[in-house]
Specification:
Layout: H1 8-21, E1 22-24, H2 25-33, E2 39-42, H3 46-51, E3 53-54, E4 58-59, H4 62-72, E5 79-82, H5 90-100, E6 105-109, H6 111-117, E7 122-124, E8 127-129
Parallel strand pairs: 1-6, 2-4, 2-5, 5-6
Antiparallel strand pairs: 3-7, 7-8
Length: 147
């Protein structure tokens, strides 16, 4: 690890900012279970949406956010965006579009991939899809990874 002249305060600010603007599937699902009001937005295209999505998500592809968001989501409603997974920056682009419109917005890191792999509710155009938890992403015999 290379040495850095960054101060402790700068490091704290960096990681605090990440937590302000990012969330993960575990926290999003916990918020859903606890009745926290927010819009979970799937920013992928129609084919991806049809294939599978987080239960409770709203379909609003990134290219349509500027045009349709204000008609579909109240501006005072917090928004969480997701796309495919950690190798895709679509959720970041979607979050940027919501931020430009004045929304309080977070990006769900890990995207739909980690939502599904962690065993959270998934549906497609035919109904609910049952998936087992992936032991590489979530503890099998626990509600949380306690991180």
């Amino acid at each position: 690890m290379t040495s850095s002249r960054m101060t402790s305060g700068a490091r704290i600010a960096h990681f605090a900012a990440k937590l302000t603007f990012e969330t993960d599937a575990s926290d999003v699902h916990a918020d859903q279970e606890n009745g926290v009001q927010f819009a979970l937005v799937d920013s992928r295209g129609a084919a991806a949406w049809a294939q599978g999505r987080a239960v409770g998500a709203i379909h609003l592809p990134t290219g349509l956010i500027a045009e349709k968001a204000l008609d579909q989501i109240p501006q005072d409603m917090p928004v969480v965006t997701y796309c495919w997974g950690p190798g895709c920056n679509g959720a970041t682009r979607a979050a940027l579009e919501f931020a430009k419109l004045g929304y309080e917005v977070k990006e769900m890191i890990g995207g739909f991939e980690y939502w599904a792999r962690e065993g959270y509710p998934v549906e497609n155009d035919h109904g609910r899809v049952t998936r087992a938890k992936d032991p590489l992403t979530a503890p099998i015999d626990s509600v949380s990874c306690d991180c």
